[in-house]
Amino acid sequence: MTTPSQQPSETPRPGSRPAERTYAAASPDVDVKAISPVADEVTSPPTQPSVAEEFGPEIEAKAGELAARYPQSRSALLPMLHLVQSVQGYVSQEGIAFCARQLDLTEAEVSAVATFYTMYKRRPCGQHLVSVCTNTLCAVLGGDDIYKRLSEHLGEDGKPLGHEETAGEPGEPGSITLEHAECLAACDLGPVIQVNYEYFDNQTPEKAVELVDALRRGEKPQPTRGAPLTDFKSVERQLAGFFPEEEDVFRSDVDAPSQAVETLRGAQLAADRGWTAPVMPENAPLPEVEAK
Ligand code: FES
Asked: InterPro entries recorded for this chain (predicted)?
């Protein structure tokens, strides 16, 4: 006989309760918890679309397009997980099952990939994902202070917001998921924050608080460089490889200068001084590559 807590159920929908309260798992590992929902406390708000509706014909067609882009369909798993996130705002158990079906993989194989990369979220995300770089260089330049200030500012009742926790109702306008991130590849512009992977350079705790307050008011501040700000789900659709078809819409949505003066300073200095890299000898021996 099965007890209620042993019965499988639908993955929890975005809601106000933190994931840990509704997920049960064999180990305390948060990744395992978040992709292994067990039933007893889980209910779906009536206004949410069903999973079948979310992964309906339109998404199935897009998944088919992705699979067809590769000689081996399993290579489409990474973009397909982004497609799942563009639908649900995270990778749910149903999202994992969807990818497995589309790509003829086991759910265990898909789970192994989804839980390996931090870009795949195992809990429902806010409208915006705010990533604060706390890797070494940004940390010493103030990244740790920024993260601390934001987690306190976005927390409730004196409890700071934790890593990958959401202020507000996940998916609702103005909701923000906070995370600390490893090097965001903009060390020359640290400390940096990304919002939905767009850069806000040379931040301070005060500027960061202004930024998240603007997001909570529904504004979309212009990133320091790169494309205009949208929201987490829209960016996930782009990361899955789906872009506006009209050239001018594409340009305005996703294309913008991404380099900064600081980033080009070394190249500029070399050009000013006439420095060039040594020429590669004609017959330079190349290392042997082992045949597989
Ligand atoms: S350490 Fe923050 S971007 Fe590299």
From this structure: NuoE_dom, NuoE_N, Thioredoxin-like_sf
